[in-house]
Design goal:
globular; alpha+beta; 16 strands
């Protein structure tokens, strides 16, 4: 089998181009290129909830856990264990490492300005727009809005022509999701689906893949007292291969007294919202037309031509990801900006 092409992203902090070390890349290539076409029934079984759960148990909950000292496991995965709340001895299983809590209030500083929208996760970020007049225009590449939000949902019409951000969490990332905005929860519901891999190869093979996986949709009204004032924001938490569950656990301070997210709940930007259990996964943010402008460096990175990306637009233009930190600036409320260089969505 021919080796898949490399996949690169831009490290936001340094500006360096990094070649991603994708886990089980050849296995994913076989699953999505050969097996999907030659044995579709088996392919559907392998991307089912049951198989995803079995794979997760084998990798994260197998009796005996990892046999190496926790520090070695963290180092192999590229995780800084000193960020964690618990000492190394606590991390006796891969599940505990995956579901780790960190001192985010110290290590992921946040701009408290209400006009700043922040990243919901440590992730590889892609930004785009559904407005044909936008330089970031991407037509139904990663998802169809109606399918993503549910075929019976009334919400898709609110986001047509708007902007979006796709946050891809790789297995080594911290897997709590945090709120990108402040506001009042208008709706939260689940849409059933499969458990496809979030490896970029899977997106090449399966159109609108994010619309196919099981997901939780949360709609937040930010045009309320104490809100971010950027209209309605949809936060879609999407499972992937080996993700067993999405646990809603909103905490206003640290991880204290977590509570379910429900309609009517007033939520605060930067606070933990939910936890993926376990594997890799994706957050998608949807914004209404004309309400936000993405951070200029993210726009510049998305248009780079010196990066090898497996993602591409319909015209063949590379779609480049930026490695972004939790609670760092992702976008600004549009009316906040006076600099014409930031008017990238018009």
């Amino acid at each position: 089998m021919i080796a898949p092409i490399p996949h690169q992203y831009v490290d936001r902090a340094s500006g360096r181009i990094v070649t991603e070390k994708l886990i089980a890349d050849r296995a994913v290539a076989f699953l999505y290129n050969r097996l999907r076409e030659s044995a579709p029934t088996l392919f559907r079984a392998l991307t089912s909830a049951r198989m995803s759960s079995l794979l997760a148990f084998s990798h994260y909950d197998r009796p005996g856990g990892h046999r190496r000292p926790a520090e070695q496991v963290f180092a192999r995965l590229g995780i800084d264990w000193q960020e964690c709340l618990q000492p190394p001895g606590y991390y006796s299983t891969m599940r505990r490492i995956f579901e780790r809590q960190i001192r985010y209030w110290e290590l992921r500083p946040m701009d408290e300005d209400p006009a700043v929208i922040v990243s919901p996760a440590d992730a590889r970020l892609l930004i785009g727009s559904f407005a044909e007049s936008s330089a970031l225009f991407i037509k139904d590449k990663f998802f169809d809005i109606k399918e993503l939000l549910g075929s019976d949902s009334l919400w898709p019409s609110h986001f047509h022509g708007g902007d979006f951000a796709v946050c891809r969490l790789t297995p080594d990332k911290y897997h709590y999701n945090h709120l990108p905005v402040s506001g009042r929860v208008t709706a939260i519901y689940e849409v059933d689906g499969c458990y496809h891999s979030c490896n970029p190869l899977a997106f090449i093979a399966v159109a609108s893949l994010y619309s196919k996986n099981r997901r939780v949709v949360t709609v937040i009204d930010t045009d309320v007292e104490g809100g971010s004032r950027v209209g309605l924001v949809a936060m879609v938490e999407i499972v992937a291969l080996m993700i067993g569950d999405i646990v809603q656990a909103y905490s206003r301070e640290g991880y204290v007294d977590p509570q379910p997210v429900r309609p009517g709940l007033m939520v605060r930007k930067g606070c933990p919202k939910s936890l993926y259990r376990p594997g890799s996964s994706t957050d998608v943010l949807l914004f209404q037309p004309g309400r936000i402008n993405f951070a200029p460096d993210l726009v510049v990175n998305s248009r780079r031509h010196d990066v090898t990306s497996r993602f591409a637009s319909d015209s063949g233009r590379p779609l480049v990801e930026t490695d972004i930190r939790l609670r760092s600036p992702l976008a600004w409320r549009r009316e906040k900006l006076a600099n014409p260089l930031l008017e990238n969505n018009r």
